[in-house]
C-alpha cells in the first residue's frame, strides 16, 4: 500500500472535461538521456546556413549536441504542416494508417484540381488554380 501511495505522490493527476482521469509521471530525480549542457540540434538547413554566415556555428562546433528526434529532418520533402495534418488524423498511435490517409487525401485533391485545370479554357483561369495539394491545404483553398 505504501508503494502505491509513493507512485501516486509522484503522479500529477489532471482531470479532463470527460469522465476519464489520466496520471502522468513527472521526472523528479533529475536524470535524463542527455546532460543539461548538451545543446538541441539545428536540423534545418536554412538555420544552419544563417549560423554559418553569422559565425555562431564556429562557437557551437565543439559543444556536445543531442541527437535529433525522429520527426526532425532536413529533407526537402518534409513539411511541418503536413506532419501536423497527419497527427490530427492519427488515432490510437497508428501513424502509418494516418499517413496513408493523408496521401490518399492529397491524391484526391490533386485529381480534383487537375480536373478543374483542364476544364479551364484560358491561361488566366488556369494560372489561378493551385495544383500542389499541400499548398492548397495550407492556404485553405
Summarize the structure.
With 141 residues, the chain is mainly alpha-helical.
Estimated structural class: mainly alpha
How many helices? The count is 7
As a whole number of angstroms, the C-alpha radius of gyration is 23 Å
- Quantity of strands, as a count: 2
Biggest sheet record: 2 strands, antiparallel
The sequence of SSEs as H and E is HEEHHHHHH
Give the uncertain stretches in residue-range form: 10-23
Strand content: 5-15%
| Overall mean confidence score, pLDDT | 78
Q: Trace the largest sheet across and list its strands.
A: 1-2
Characterize the overall form.
elongated
- The helix content, as a percent range, equals 40-55%
Distance separating the two termini: 58 Å
Protein name: Small ribosomal subunit protein uS7 domain-containing protein
Family: Belongs to the universal ribosomal protein uS7 family.
InterPro entries: Ribosomal_uS7_dom, Ribosomal_uS7_dom_sf
Keywords: Ribonucleoprotein, Ribosomal protein
Protein architecture, described:
It is a single chain. The chain is mainly alpha-helical. The protein has a domain at 79-141. It has helices at residues 2-10, 45-54, 56-60, 80-89, 95-119, 123-128, 133-139; strands at residues 11-15, 21-25. Strands 1-2 form a two-stranded antiparallel ribbon. A hairpin with a 5-residue loop joins strand 1 (11-15) and strand 2. The chain starts with a helix and ends with a helix. Mean pLDDT is 78; it is low at 10-23. InterPro entries: Ribosomal_uS7_dom, Ribosomal_uS7_dom_sf. Pfam families: Ribosomal_S7. This is Small ribosomal subunit protein uS7 domain-containing protein. Belongs to the universal ribosomal protein uS7 family. Residues 71-111 form the Small ribosomal subunit protein uS7 domain.
Amino acid at each position: 500500500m505504501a508503494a502505491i501511495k509513493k507512485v501516486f505522490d509522484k503522479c500529477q493527476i489532471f482531470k479532463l472535461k470527460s469522465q476519464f482521469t489520466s496520471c502522468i509521471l513527472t521526472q523528479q530525480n533529475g536524470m535524463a538521456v542527455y546532460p543539461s549542457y548538451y545543446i538541441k540540434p539545428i536540423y534545418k538547413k536554412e538555420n544552419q546556413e544563417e549560423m554559418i554566415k553569422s559565425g555562431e556555428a564556429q562557437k557551437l562546433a565543439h559543444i556536445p549536441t543531442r541527437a535529433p528526434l525522429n520527426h526532425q529532418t532536413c529533407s526537402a520533402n518534409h513539411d511541418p504542416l503536413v506532419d501536423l495534418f497527419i497527427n490530427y488524423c492519427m488515432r490510437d498511435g497508428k501513424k502509418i494508417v494516418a499517413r496513408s490517409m493523408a496521401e490518399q487525401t492529397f491524391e484526391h485533391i490533386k485529381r480534383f484540381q487537375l480536373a478543374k485545370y483542364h476544364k479551364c479554357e484560358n491561361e488566366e483561369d488556369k494560372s489561378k488554380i493551385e495544383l500542389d495539394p499541400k499548398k492548397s491545404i495550407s492556404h485553405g483553398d
